[in-house]
Amino acid sequence: MKLVKRRKESTYKLNKNGEDMLMNREEEEEVNKKFKANHMVMVAKLQENGKL
After folding, report:
1. What SS3 class is residue 1?
2. What's the pTM value of the predicted model, to 2 decimals?
3. Cβ-contact 14, 1 below 8 angstroms
4. Fewer CB atoms inside 10 Å of the end CB: C or N, the chain?
5. What is the spatial distance between Cα 49 and Cα 28, in angstroms, rounded to a whole number?
6. Which residues contact 46 (CB under 8 A, 6 or more apart)?
7. Burial of 21 by CB count in 10 Å (0-12 exposed, 13-18 middle, 19+ buried)?
């Protein structure tokens, strides 16, 4: 499944036909949490390596 960001930062999910389907709230929050967690891990690693 592919996730794409669209204007106004809404999270959409592409269905089989490649059409946009607005995610329900729970799914959207779940995805945002994962994204933020991954982002924080990346930032921490960069800081460790002295890149930031």
Report:
1. coil
2. 0.38
3. yes
4. N
5. 32
6. 52
7. exposed
Q: Tokens representing 37? A: 């967690």
* Residue type, position 21, single letter: M
Domain ranges of the chain: 3-48
Torsion sign (Cα): 9, 6, 12, 33: negative
pLDDT in tens, the chain (52 residues): 566 655 554 555 555 655 555 556 777 788 888 888 888 888 898 888 887 6
Side chain identity at residue 45, one-letter code: K
Q: Label residue 13 exposed, middle or buried (CB < 10 Å: 0-12, 13-18, 19+).
A: middle
The C-alpha angle 26, 29, 33, rounded to 5 degrees, equals 140
